[in-house]
Amino acid sequence: MAGFAQEEAMHRTIRCAHCHCRFLPDPRVKHQRFCANKPCQRARKTRWQRAKLATDPDYQANQRDSQRNWQNQHPHYWQQYRHQHADYRERNRLLQQHRDHKRRVRPLAKMDVLELVSCIQPGMYHLIPVVGPHLAKMDVLSQKCHVIPMT
Ligand SMILES: [Zn+2]
User: Ligand 1: distance of its center to the CA of 107 in Å?
Assistant: First the structure.
């Protein structure tokens, strides 16, 4: 009997939109798409906030105001943060370098692939993760790259 109930419950499980695990949704929550795990709930909140920011000008203005207030109350926070986090400074420096490089390289867009590949010199490169919600905590990965031209 317990086995039957378990099987019944299995049929009612859904897949979490964040971790893709199967879970039994709470019948009190309408259109539940995320399981109760902390990272999944955080992801749900982030998505909600992002959507809200994109669609609700009042929410956007509110967020801007409260951020401004917080910054006025903590005027040296980011200065201190940058001072204390060498990895953050390094990442920003590399991202800026990358933006500068992209600005300079734009006219190359019409070059064919072979020409572009030959522009990349073998050597040490930094792999910079694409911007995410925890920007400040991200690390820069250093990887040695060998360029292998296709023939
Ligand atoms: Zn989940």
Answer: 44
